[in-house]
Design goal:
With 123 residues, this protein is mostly helical. Helices cover 85% and strands 3% of the residues. It is built from three helices and two strands. The longest helix has 80 residues, at 2-81.
């Protein structure tokens, strides 16, 4: 009977040791789970921030593209309005160039007497 009691006591000690080891492992797993959850939250926050920044950049690019498209449409429409080979345009351009060159040739004195900024004179 005494030996049976000793065997049961020994078994209780073994089970208590095993239980303590399992509790220690559980605590380690719980700590690891908490660490992984923290890391996951950080990654999610970074991804959300990155997504917001990407959406903002995409919106800016989209807006810029719309502006460029509008400018291109205006350029294309102005090209159809003013044709560089059109005789009227060529004539007006030639008159402007001729007038500009006459003004530049005859305005040497005018350029010498231009005052720039704080009393500085252009010579």
């Amino acid at each position: 009977m005494q030996s049976e009691l000793d065997l049961l006591k020994q078994r209780i000690i073994e089970l208590e040791t095993e239980n303590a080891e399992l509790k220690a492992k559980e605590a380690m797993f719980m700590a690891r789970i908490m660490e992984l959850e923290q890391n996951a939250k950080k990654v999610i926050m970074k991804l959300e921030r990155s997504t917001k920044e990407s959406k903002k950049r995409f919106a800016k690019l989209e807006q810029k593209q719309l502006q460029n498209d509008a400018v291109d449409r205006l350029d294309n429409s102005s090209e159809s309005i003013i044709n560089a080979s059109d005789p009227i345009y060529v004539n007006i351009n030639a008159i402007f160039i001729e007038a500009s060159s006459k003004v530049l040739r005859n305005s040497n004195y005018w350029f010498k007497n231009i005052t720039i900024g704080d009393g500085c004179r252009m010579i």
